[in-house]
Amino acid sequence: MTVPFWAWLAVIGVILAMLAIDLFAHRRAHVIGVREAALWSAVWIAFGVAFGALIWQVYGAEFGQQYFAGYLIEKSLAVDNVFVWAIIFSYFAVPREYQHRVLFLGVVGALVFRGIFIAAGSAIIASAGWVLYLFAAFLLYTGYRMIRQRNEHMEPEKSRALKLFRRFVPMTDAFHGQRLLVRRNGVLLATPLLAVLVLVEVTDIIFAVDSIPAIFAVTDEVFLVFTANAFAILGLRAMYFLLADLMHRFIYLKVGLALVLIWVGIKMLLKIDIFYIPTPISLAVVVAILAVSIGASLLATRGQARQPLAAPVNPPFRIADPAETAELDPLWRRPVPAGKGTGRDDGSTL
């Protein structure tokens, strides 16, 4: 598969344009409802599917199928990531109108980090093919571990990243709107929203360690690996607002995702020296696993309504009142000490 340099630039340009549109559409903090989330989810999925159709048309069915297999794997694994975000936001009691900004910045960071991981993974595979054995073993182990820990959930208060952040970064004890940083009495402070963003980024990096080897099991083409990741990630914010309150209904999804990882690990192991499983078969198996796990989950929990996770009785941070926020110093300009004006000697100002 030969991809010209201009095609890379075009894809990156489209991604940046989509991010800009999303940022403009959500420039004001507001609670994103189910209808709006469903609409944006449909838009992002349409972009991802349209790009896959373009790949199919230009490069043929094999590469088109590889893209869709990678896109489906990344999209399905991202659902588990969405549920972790729900736990983080619930623990910190982040107001829903502030969550989109955190997710927007988190997705931008995820695109950057995953691009780095993909480039590094491709270079390692090209120079040391035996590393595929490690990738395959890692996927099999991760799938096994997910099955064993299927009923366990992340506990943000025990996160090492959060403990390190609170230890080394001075913080306020309250949310100040959508601000990530504030200045109080001349001192620059992080807000709890920045701590949430850091935790979201760390969790995505952890998930990328699983998902990047998984997509290399279905395609060796770096262009397909990157674009499948990018188009899957771009829709995560809308997916979060659509699915976060349904976390309690996807009771078998984690088992399904574990089986997907085990399947792609087996596919990678066989591909190295034994047998190449055709992409249509691999894609069909992934679709079947996800369909059964999601269908069984919804059937077993039918009749249950949307149910947001309960916030802790005593959340670790509070919401600052308007008067408190108004007393903050300008963020990027230190306040002038009393008695040290910037005017001329005659008392006039410049």
UniProtKB/TrEMBL annotation:
Location relative to the cell: Membrane
Pfam families: TerC
Recorded topology in the membrane: Multi-pass membrane protein
Transmembrane intervals: 6-25, 37-56, 76-94, 101-118, 124-144, 187-216, 222-243, 250-270, 276-300
GO cellular component: membrane
Keyword Ubl conjugation assigned: no
Keywords tagged on the record: Membrane, Transmembrane, Transmembrane helix
Similarity comment: Belongs to the TerC family.
Protein name: TerC family protein
Species: Arthrobacter crusticola
Biological classification of the source: Bacteria, Bacillati, Actinomycetota, Actinomycetes, Micrococcales
